[in-house]
Amino acid sequence: MRLDEAFQRRLNDARTLFSNGKAAEAESLYRSLLHPDLPAGGNILVLDGLGRCLHAQGRLEEAEGLFRESMRLLEELFGPDHPHVAGALQNLARLRSERGDRAEAVELGARALHILKEQLPPDDVRLADALLNLSSNQYAAKDYDAAEANLNKALRIWEAQEGRRSFGVSTCLNNLGRICEERGETAQGVLYHREAVAIRKEILGDHAETAFSLGNYGAALAGDGQWTEAARALEEALACYERIGQADTPDAATCRANLELCRKAAQPAS
Fold first, then answer.
1. 99 touches 64 (CB < 8 A)
2. Is residue 210 over pLDDT 70?
3. pTM
4. If 162 and its partner were Cys, which of 25, 32, 38, 166 is the partner (CB 3.0–4.6 Å)?
5. Do you know which Gene3D superfamilies this protein is assigned to (predicted)?
6. What digits encode the pLDDT tens for the residues 33-49?
C-alpha cells in the first residue's frame, strides 16, 4: 500500500485539525488512516500524529505507547542516530516529564541533542529547539544552572539566524525570567519578561503567546512587589485573551486569580 494522494490529503487534514486545537477530531481521522498494509513511513507519520492528539487530550499512557512504537520504527528505518529519531526522543521526553519522570526526560532530551549535534551544523535552528526542550526538562527537574546554560546557547543560535526580534528568542527570554524568579532574582526576571512581551507584541500582535507572556510578566512584577504594574500587565493579558476568544482558558483563569491578588495587595493598608 503506497502513500497515495488521498492518504496525503487526509493526513494533511488531520494535521490541520490538530493545529486548530481540534485534537479529538484529528484523532478520529488519524485512526481512519491506520491500515495493516501501510508502509513503515506512513505508519510512523500516523502513529506520531495520533500520539500528539492523545497527548493533547491528557491521555498520556496511550500517547507514550504510540510515541515509543513510532521511535522503534524510526530506528529500524533510519538507524538510531538519525535526526528523525531525535524528534521522536524529544516528544517522548516532554511526555515523560509530564508524567513526573524528570530524570528520564532529561536523559531522553540529552540523547536527542547529542544526535543533532553530530548531524547538523552548530548554528542550525533545530539545535536551538533541542536545547530549549532539554532546558525545559532541566527546569522541571530544578536543575536551573543547566537549564540556564542551554537557554543561553539556544538564544544565541536564534538571534544569529533570525534576529533578536524572533519568537525563539522571546521564548528563551521568558524561560530565563522564570529561572530568575525561582532563584529570587526578581528584578532581572522582570527585565527578561518585559523584553519577551515587547518582542511578541511586535511580531505576533494579539495572540495566545502574547497573552501568555503578559501573564508571566505580571506574575514577575508581583513577585518583585510591583503590585500596580503587575495588575496593569495582567489586565492587558486578560484583554488580549478576550480579543482572541480565549477568555475561558486555564491560562486566562490564572491571570484573573493573580489579578485579584495584585489588586488586594496594591490597596493601601487601613
1. yes
2. yes
3. 0.87
4. 166
5. Tetratricopeptide repeat domain
6. 988 888 888 899 999 99
